[in-house]
Structure formats: C-alpha cells, structure tokens
From TrEMBL:
<dbReference type="InterPro" id="IPR023620">
    <property type="entry name" value="SmpB"/>
</dbReference>
<feature type="compositionally biased region" description="Basic and acidic residues">
    <location>
        <begin position="138"/>
        <end position="147"/>
    </location>
</feature>
<comment type="function">
    <text>Required for rescue of stalled ribosomes mediated by trans-translation. Binds to transfer-messenger RNA (tmRNA), required for stable association of tmRNA with ribosomes. tmRNA and SmpB together mimic tRNA shape, replacing the anticodon stem-loop with SmpB. tmRNA is encoded by the ssrA gene; the 2 termini fold to resemble tRNA(Ala) and it encodes a 'tag peptide', a short internal open reading frame. During trans-translation Ala-aminoacylated tmRNA acts like a tRNA, entering the A-site of stalled ribosomes, displacing the stalled mRNA.</text>
</comment>
<keyword id="KW-0963">Cytoplasm</keyword>
<dbReference type="Pfam" id="PF01668">
    <property type="entry name" value="SmpB"/>
</dbReference>
<comment type="similarity">
    <text>Belongs to the SmpB family.</text>
</comment>
<keyword id="KW-0694">RNA-binding</keyword>
<dbReference type="InterPro" id="IPR000037">
    <property type="entry name" value="SsrA-bd_prot"/>
</dbReference>
<dbReference type="InterPro" id="IPR020081">
    <property type="entry name" value="SsrA-bd_prot_CS"/>
</dbReference>
<feature type="compositionally biased region" description="Basic residues">
    <location>
        <begin position="153"/>
        <end position="162"/>
    </location>
</feature>
<feature type="region of interest" description="Disordered">
    <location>
        <begin position="138"/>
        <end position="162"/>
    </location>
</feature>
<protein>
    <recommendedName>
        <fullName>SsrA-binding protein</fullName>
    </recommendedName>
</protein>
Length: 162
C-alpha cells in the first residue's frame, strides 16, 4: 500500500478565526478507531462547537462530530465521543500553563491528513468581544480596498509604458 504524501484538509473551523484572537497554534495527532478514519477519508467531519480541554495532564478534544461510517456494522463508533490528542510533553505543559490564564481556550482550527495520519491544528485563543469583531472586519475591508487600488495602479503603470 502506497503512503500518502502532502496534506488533505478534512474540515476547517472558519468561524473560530472570527470569534477568537489566535495567540498560538499547535499540530496534534488524534487517537481514532477504524470506522472514524474511514468516515474521515470520505471527508465527513464537523469542527463546529468543538473545543479541547486539559484533564490529568492530557489534552482531550470534545464536541468533534465524525458521523458513523455508512458501511460500518455493530463496531461503528459514537459520533461525538471524546478523543485524545497527541502532543509532546513540553507542548502539553506549556498549554496547561497558558490555559490557566483567564480568557484563553483551546480551539481546533482545522483537521487534515498529513502523510496518511489525521492531524488537528489546535489554537490557543482568546475570545473576542463584539466590538473587536467589528474592528477586525473593518481592518480587513480596508486592507482589501488598499490592495484593490494598488492592483489597479500597477495595471495602469504597466499599460502606459508601451
């Protein structure tokens, strides 16, 4: 069996980047059972409402929805079970220290296959208030407008030199 190479995104949590300020990101492996992997290979997963917690020195992913495998039998998995995340001990200790700070939480940003293994991009994030969200949207729109104007100027500049 040939080994996969590269990355294939399974699911992404686009709303997390809107609701949180991302402070730091980590790549973590996920402990899964066979039918979960088969369901993920079909591209079926939802990171909405999922989050990570620290329990007894381990990181656990909660609320991740992986639907039951359609061709599975009685051995099928539970769709919203708690799954263990695999990180280095130093990273876990750093996350334990940082999550004890008020207002920070662990949020999964995306789930993907990397060299045939399922990985989760986990973010240490701080929740945004409504006015912060409005400021972020206004800044993004202003940056887009600047890029648009600069693009037009660049096009005009090259066209006039004939």
């Amino acid at each position: 069996m040939a080994k996969e190479s590269g990355q294939k995104v399974i699911a992404s949590n686009r709303k997390a980047r809107h609701d949180y300020t991302i402070l730091d990101t980590y790549e973590a492996g996920v402990v899964l059972v066979g039918t979960e992997v088969k369901s993920l290979r079909a591209g079926r997963a939802s990171l909405v409402d999922s989050f990570a917690t620290v329990d007894d020195g381990e990181i656990w992913l909660r609320g991740l929805h992986i639907p039951e495998y359609t061709h599975g039998t009685w051995t099928n998995h539970e769709p919203r079970r708690t799954r263990k995340l695999l990180l280095h001990k130093k990273e876990i200790l750093r996350l334990i220290g940082k999550t004890k700070e008020s207002g920070t939480s662990l949020v999964p940003l995306s789930m993907y296959f990397k060299d045939g293994k399922v990985k989760v991009e986990l973010a240490l994030a701080r929740g945004r208030k409504a006015h912060d969200k409005r400021q972020a949207i206004a800044k993004r729109d202003a940056d887009r407008e600047i890029q648009k104007v600069m693009g037009r100027a660049a096009k005009r500049g090259t066209g006039a030199r004939r």
